[in-house]
């Protein structure tokens, strides 16, 4: 594994003053991927959405009929899998291309079934441990924006800039519902909301590296803000640091 995306360089900021490693954490639907992708393109950094790793492991487990709580089987499985994360290979709305053992699973990892099981799979210590080193190896390549749940707290505790995006469950579910509709997935809103709340609960209460802001993270409240407004907020933060 894993490549990421190298976007366009930007003249927005003085490059010398820019943070080289940026961690973006937050709950499902907070806008991490969209913001990280846009920011990476502007700064010419690698963008790495770590959630796709947990999703790919979950998809592989479901296909093998493994229960999300089957610790020994998951531990063995995660060691065998080959997951690659590449810049988009098709222009079909994807931000990254995800390859699982030679198969393009970019959309297969975004089904409601994977959504429903991914938090339980990612709570397994063996899964987290195996993926931790892989994430750090990607970050060692230099200018990087890494998005996830535990990037600022565990994966890159020395990141130059740590952002924690948040919004109410209702707003995040609304965004998720719109995103799913754009992919032809129709689910009743209460179901999307319940799923978001369920994942919030598992992600923030698991024993190992639970979802929470790092002590030195900057909290960005994205409630009611569109992408441009969130980017403007982050630009202002980067400007203050320059
Ligand atoms: O960001 P996402 O919704 O694609 O992430 C899917 C799941 O993966 C999320 O519910 C918890 C897990 N995850 C994690 O535990 N740690 C990360 N750094 C990223 C994702």
Automatic annotation (TrEMBL):
Q: Which GO terms describe its cellular component?
A: cytosol
Output the GO biological process annotations, alphabetical, semicolon-separated.
nucleobase-containing small molecule interconversion; pyrimidine nucleotide metabolic process
Respond yes or no to whether keyword Transferase is given for this record. yes
Annotated binding of ATP, by residue: 26-34
* UniProt KW keywords: ATP-binding, Cytoplasm, Kinase, Nucleotide-binding, Transferase
Residue span(s) of domain Cytidylate kinase: 22-234
E.C. number: 2.7.4.25
Predominant subcellular localization, coarse grouping: cytoplasm
Known catalytic reactions: dCMP + ATP = dCDP + ADP; CMP + ATP = CDP + ADP
* Highest rank taxon of the organism: Bacteria
The record's similarity note reads:
Belongs to the cytidylate kinase family. Type 1 subfamily.
Protein name per Swiss-Prot or TrEMBL: Cytidylate kinase
Q: Which organism is it from?
A: uncultured Thermomicrobiales bacterium
Per the UniProt record, the lineage of the source organism begins with: Bacteria, Pseudomonadati, Thermomicrobiota, Thermomicrobia, Thermomicrobiales
């Amino acid at each position: 594994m894993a490549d990421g995306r190298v976007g366009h360089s930007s003249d927005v900021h003085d490059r010398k003053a820019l943070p080289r490693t940026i961690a973006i954490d937050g709950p499902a639907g907070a806008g991490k991927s969209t913001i990280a992708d846009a920011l990476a393109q502007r700064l010419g950094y690698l963008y790495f959405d770590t959630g796709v790793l947990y999703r790919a492991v979950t998809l592989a487990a479901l296909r093998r009929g493994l229960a999300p709580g089957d610790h020994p089987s998951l531990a063995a499985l995660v060691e065998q899998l080959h997951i690659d994360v590449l810049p988009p290979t098709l222009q079909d709305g994807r931000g990254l291309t995800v390859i699982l053992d030679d198969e393009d699973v970019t959309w297969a990892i975004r089904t409601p079934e994977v959504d429903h099981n991914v938090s339980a799979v990612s709570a397994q210590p063996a899964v987290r441990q195996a993926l931790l080193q892989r994430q750090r190896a990607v970050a060692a390549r230099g200018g990087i924006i890494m998005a996830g749940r535990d990037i600022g707290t565990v994966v890159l505790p020395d990141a130059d800039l740590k952002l924690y995006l948040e919004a109410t469950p209702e707003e995040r579910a609304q965004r998720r519902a719109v995103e799913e509709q754009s992919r032809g997935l129709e689910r009743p809103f209460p179901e999307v909301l319940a799923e978001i709340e369920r994942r919030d609960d598992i992600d923030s209460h698991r024993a190992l590296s639970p979802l929470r802001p790092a002590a030195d993270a900057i909290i960005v409240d994205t409630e009611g803000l569109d992408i441009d407004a969130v980017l403007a907020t982050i630009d202002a933060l980067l400007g203050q640091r320059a």
